[in-house]
Amino acid sequence: VHHASGRHDEKNGMMSRAKVLTIDTMNPTVKKVEYAVRGPIVARAVELERELSEGMKKPFSEVIKANIGDAHAMGQQPITFFRQVLALCSYPELLSDSTFPEDAKSRACSILNSCGGNSMGSYSPSQGIESVRQDVARYIERRDGGVPCDPDNIYLTTGASDGIVTMLKLLVCGEGATRAGVMISIPQYPLYSAALAELGAVQINYYLNEEKFWSLDISELQRALDEARLYCNPRALCIINPGNPTGQVQSRECIEDVIRFAAQERLFLMADEVYQDNVYAEGCQFHSFKKVLFEMGPEYSETVELASFHSTSKCYMGECGFRGGYMEIINMDDDVKAQLTKLLSVRLCPPVPGQALMDLVVNPPQPGEPSYERFIKERTATLSTLAEKAKLTEQVLNTVQGISCNPVQGAMYSFPRITIPEKAVKEATDMGQQPDMFYCMKMLEETGICLVPGSGFGQREGTYHFRMTILPRTDKLKILLNKVQEFHLKFTQQYS
Amino acid sequence: VHHASGRHDEKNGMMSRAKVLTIDTMNPTVKKVEYAVRGPIVARAVELERELSEGMKKPFSEVIKANIGDAHAMGQQPITFFRQVLALCSYPELLSDSTFPEDAKSRACSILNSCGGNSMGSYSPSQGIESVRQDVARYIERRDGGVPCDPDNIYLTTGASDGIVTMLKLLVCGEGATRAGVMISIPQYPLYSAALAELGAVQINYYLNEEKFWSLDISELQRALDEARLYCNPRALCIINPGNPTGQVQSRECIEDVIRFAAQERLFLMADEVYQDNVYAEGCQFHSFKKVLFEMGPEYSETVELASFHSTSKCYMGECGFRGGYMEIINMDDDVKAQLTKLLSVRLCPPVPGQALMDLVVNPPQPGEPSYERFIKERTATLSTLAEKAKLTEQVLNTVQGISCNPVQGAMYSFPRITIPEKAVKEATDMGQQPDMFYCMKMLEETGICLVPGSGFGQREGTYHFRMTILPRTDKLKILLNKVQEFHLKFTQQYS
């Protein structure tokens, strides 16, 4: 019998071996990864749900998860046409079923014809199904008023996250003072900080201006970059527009400034545009980085390297579970593009049902087709309800003393600033907890409402926030906002 | 106007900037990644297909892709029951359609009930849908004759590849002489070498014994390990059983020896068991590492760290496009498990349709249910056809002078050894090409058959192989095998 590294275990008298993989011997970069959107507070929410279902008494009857942009989980209905086509693609025998509309059938046939053996069960090319990439390119051209799009620049992805991580992976390199740095906004969506930690790249923070509706100031970009150049090699600039968690929608002028800045400072631009249809505020409009780049003329459109990301998970469809997405890549070096394609081939392909769904998003029913009216009705209803909820959330939160909320111009979240009394800050600090984590944890225990503390996204020191989705059904959202209000007052009194 | 790093472009008189991201400045580990299964030979096959479709004359009328285990693309039909349930889950209005069998409806309802908002469009928990993990655990218990399985040890994944890469990610650490090393078989499935290159870990090769049906010798494991200890820190041992590309099925005795070896040498065991239903040869049987580990008693079952991987892509279902899979993790340190769960949360969740499909694979129709007979008929037909094709492939290839093929005991590939004349070896070497790449490229150009050269999987120096799937329809497979035969004779004559 072999016991190369055995040690005697007193308790059961058996030989036991030290584990190969322990917290001390595992990959140290993985340990640095943090992802607040599904962090400890969500784990506790799941526990509370279980306790409730087991009949345990709580000061609430239901856990409301407003921590994540998960539209269907909050009751949003899928687009009928999309699901009809997916059912037809899954089980093509339904193509002879007369209850399905003809346009759904023809979309399904064209998707299946692009699949090996006419089956969604076949691998697709690693870059994605060719006809889907062509449809994506035509969609981008329509969206951007005719700016040309080459399907060879389109890569289908497993949700937008997959594309973002892949692009960051290409960019990281170097050690010590030449280690690659990537600029991200603060507050940010924590996928960015998590990926950078895992890849061992330097996170360069630039702060959005909360006083000006979370807008982006070029002078702040410059400050962050100049400081970072002293200790790393800044290579890329990430922008989230419409903003997550901040909900701001960038002006055209701001985007132009950002592009000029990236060109001047030689930064690869990454534009996270997954909320491109989620724009609610009057006077706000979505401008894609691609369109603005091309309208700035060849000096920019032929040189600035840009990757932009989209997804099936947000906008009016909210199909998170299918993990569909694409990225468009502009001005990438051909050799690097070949490396990217090779890298993607190792994982074989993005999920084909997600690719099919992406195809429907970029090629929805057209006027004159049987499903057009129903599609428009469903899409409009979802988007206008979201706009109402964005407004309602801002209004109610701003009535609360000690909560101050910027307008939710777009995306799916409010990110209000909260005043936390000094006594509470001290109690949290003594417990080794961030004060806004302490606040959100208390709110969860007392009200069943699950929010994400601002510290999970980053914020200026000494300020506190939480992120709350605007996704709950309107009646539930009202209850939720009232409960937040009550909780905040009680919490403030308790710690004053 | 800003031109921090502008240079004058003579051709169009415009300022152009050097790219931020070039082959010289990109992540160097990505450049080291290779993945032959979708390498240059497949790119050329796709080109040839396009040329054919454009009417270009070729010495063949069709490209046959025998490079990848993509069953549906080769004409294999999906299991009806699985697709019925997926259609019902995609478009639940079909639950009132009387043409769907009741058991399909009840499976769909139970999957939807486990989804947030009863929709596959919701995110699932990052570890996977709880009820699916429970079904996986019960499947493993049945498969392993009652050895207990805890659903908390099950992680649903985006295909098996995702799980394998994630586990390797946890294991890598260290620099220089303490850099983590991972033992992989040669020949191997190139996901392993690709992932290790990307992660910057040391690949430790152990050679399978071609003379003994590609079996695994413990003495060879020991040799490889002892040598590796001089320059790295060996941490894990990867096994593919049934073998890819080699098709061998490991004996129970061999698995016991491997487990003893891993215990003695303190290696984390990774068992890639995605072909667990693909066993054809008489006298061969699939033994899971988990089952053998537990039958070896607590000295092993309570200490050896094991991750095993399964997928919806292979076996009788062949649903590659859905990217479904799971891993079971045994004896993992609790703190590491928490890190694993956190790491997975960043990517939110595996695709929900793939999770649904995995659920159906582990919980198929039962005796007495309306879909049972059809399911058994379809499954049996697919598996017995595969068994015939495995035998046919071996037999025909072994009739060819200069080709020698081990029995395809399991999985989906033959990996015959080929004799390449010295003159051809020289011509290839002069072109800077691997001789078997030269051989396969010529075969593709002359016959339209797309195979993968053995050099893409690794082989003993001076030996040459190719991997060919056994998936083409029997009539097509016969034509393909005849063409390979003809080509080999012609090639041998030409270079003799």
Shape of chain A: globular
In the CATH hierarchy, what is the architecture of the largest domain in chain A at level 2? 3-Layer(aba) Sandwich
* Main β-sheet description of chain A: 7 strands, mixed
Helix content of chain A: 40-55%
CATH class of the largest domain in chain A: Alpha Beta
Number of helices of chain A: 17
Low-pLDDT ranges of chain A: 1-15
Mean pLDDT of chain A: 93
| Strand count of chain A | 16
Q: In percent, how much strand structure appears in the residues of chain A?
A: 5-15%
Q: Widest sheet of chain A: strand order? A: 4-10-9-8-7-5-6
CATH superfamily of the largest domain in chain A: Type I PLP-dependent aspartate aminotransferase-like (Major domain)
The figure for the number of domains of chain A is 2
